[in-house]
Amino acid sequence: METHLRWTRRPNRLVRLLVATLGGLSLAVGITGLAHAEPTPGEIEKQIDEKWNQIEPVVEQHNQLKLELAANKTKQKQLEDQIAPLRTRVDAAFDKVTAFAVMQYKTGRVSKLDAMLTTGSPDTFIDQMTLLNMVAKDEQTRIKDVLVAKQQYDAQKGPLDELVAKQAEQEAALAKQEQQINADIKSLQAMRLDAYGNGNGTGSLKPVACPYEYTGGPGAKAAQIACQQIGKKYVWATEGPNTFDCSGLTLYAWKQVGYTLRHYTNWQYQDTKRVTRADLKAGDLVFFFSDLHHVGLYVGGGWMVHAPNPSAPVQMKKIDQEPISGYGRVA
Which residues are catalytic? Predict the structure, then answer.
């Protein structure tokens, strides 16, 4: 009896142990299956960079195509303007022929005129009128010259019309593609800002995402370069790659994307185009104090990256914390 009881109880304990073990595994699997680690800002920025690599060729093609399309539309309009008086002269010539045909019809002399009226080909009516001997030779010459000139312009305008139509379709397709990629980037950007907002910044030097916004083009690239210098030391009269002063930092960032700035804040003010606060975008320069002795590189959201002074490294800062004297755009 004792033996039987021991054997009947042991399976129960094994079952309970097995159930507990399986339950623990199920819980672990459930947690693993449900818990999705939030992407880090760096991972999201990598996705954004990949998207920018997709969109930049599209943007450049779009820009090129828009310029070509505008130029061809101008040519198209010029040809249309040149053709307009020719068309008027041709219409007037045909009006004369029509009036003459009416007169011939009223007088009953239409037997030979039928050939001209039924061919349906205005380009051949000169030869027909010659055979009919109904129009003076000088009038024939004038009309023929008009037709030849019109044919020459039509020969130029026809291919141009086809090209403009084709480019317009391409431009629309590129615009749609650009719009979709921009929407993807906007979504990623929202995720990125949320990630930084959840405490994933890098401390006081970089309290938020840097650059704060992605706008594309050389300005965005310059902003990215400036952000990569955060934490490096300030050393007067240096322009990187390991130390910077304020104008040396802006010079360095823009130099990496192919633009030249001179190493002096006043010169950089002179070398840039004035923009308003409302028009600021990543990569623009922000100048401070009445004598323009300090400059930072705007990275969006009211933030800039700058090299403040020998006591502090390159860092982010709100632009309104210093007296602003102007804004400059490099490209």
Answer: 246, 294, 306
